[in-house]
Write a structure and sequence with these properties.
CATH superfamily of the largest domain: Nucleic acid-binding proteins
Strand content: 25-35%
Number of helices: 1
Strand order of the largest sheet: 9-16-10-13-14-15
Number of strands: 19
Radius of gyration: 29 Å
Number of domains: 2
Largest sheet: 6 strands, antiparallel
Shape: globular
């Protein structure tokens, strides 16, 4: 896949780059493998906004991707390469010999018409899914399970690939794309190859509108450094040009910096500790650890 750039005829086209969808062979998804993605718009069951910044965006359908590859010993044929709006990688549509169709993550180099298999004793070829104890050392893999039979959970994004380093005492050492080396049960399954759509990292949105079309909130924080009005949380309505006023007792509810700080009692008013001791007084003290006020009677 290549990335298309444009002449800077407008401010947005100066930086914008768009993916070239030449690898897509089918535009509409398989109807039996998709379902509607419901959106809330940040509203609860009463229609009130409970989460700001959620909404907009084009309608999307969720593709039911097969991460388990549990049809062992049954041959499948790649019949299409499709686009998925909810992930960076491409999807490959498989049709098994028994007539069932499933989606899988498309690796680099997978073509329409390729025959794929899954199981513990299949050949370590591109797109095949097999256990880690059968994968040759040094081979790139993706869609790796963490629990045997639980389905692939790691290395599923576009262009990602892990490497099998070694095997010892029932565990395989896998070097992840981040550089981390993890020990995984060798009975876990993984798919051979690198995840496709490797040029996705070079795609630049170029303008705020493309982010809004995806359903993402605004890129700019609301009101600059202001945290909103008085009704927007405990820090709302503040003016950072002066010291925060705090609550009715003059205490800031931001919390302690050190959770292990010892219990301390501080008078709310500086003159409270200097009241004469020969009169009956009620002193309100603030417990900084328990975060509540206490009243002590002095005689």
């Amino acid at each position: 896949m290549a990335v298309k750039a444009y002449r800077p005829l407008t401010p947005s086209t100066r930086y914008i780059t768009i993916a070239n969808y030449d690898d897509i062979t089918k535009t509409k998804p398989e109807k039996s493998l998709v379902f509607t993605r419901k959106k809330t718009g940040g509203r609860n069951c009463y229609g009130r906004v409970t989460s700001r910044g959620i909404g907009r965006g084009n309608k999307q359908k969720i593709r039911n991707v097969d991460f388990k590859r549990n049809k062992h010993g049954i041959e499948a044929t790649v019949i299409a390469i499709e686009y998925d709006p909810r992930r960076t990688a491409r999807l490959a549509l498989l049709e098994y010999t028994d007539g069932e169709k499933r989606y899988i993550i498309c690796p680099v180099g997978l073509q329409v018409g390729t025959k794929l298999m899954s199981g513990s004793n299949v050949a370590p070829e591109l797109g095949n899914n097999l256990s880690l104890k059968a994968v040759p050392v040094g081979l790139p893999i993706h869609n790796i399970e963490l629990v045997p039979g639980g389905g692939g959970q790691m290395v599923r994004t576009a262009g990602a690939a892990a490497t099998l380093m070694s095997r010892d005492e029932g565990y395989a050492q896998i070097r992840l794309p981040s550089g981390e080396i993890r020990k995984i049960n060798e009975n876990c399954h993984a798919t051979i190859g690198q995840v496709g759509n490797t040029e996705h990292e070079n795609v630049v949105l170029g303008k705020a509108g493309r982010s809004r079309h995806r359903g993402h909130p605004a890129l700019e924080p609301r009101g600059g450094e202001e945290p909103g009005g008085p009704s927007d949380g405990r820090r709302g309505g503040q003016d950072f040009r002066r010291r925060p006023s705090g609550d009715a007792l003059g205490c800031d509810h931001e919390g302690l910096q050190d959770p292990q700080q010892e219990k301390t009692f501080e008078p709310v008013h500086p003159g409270a500790a200097r009241w004469p001791a020969d009169e009956t007084q009620v002193i309100i003290l603030w417990d900084a650890r328990l975060k509540k006020a206490r009243s002590l009677k002095r005689i």
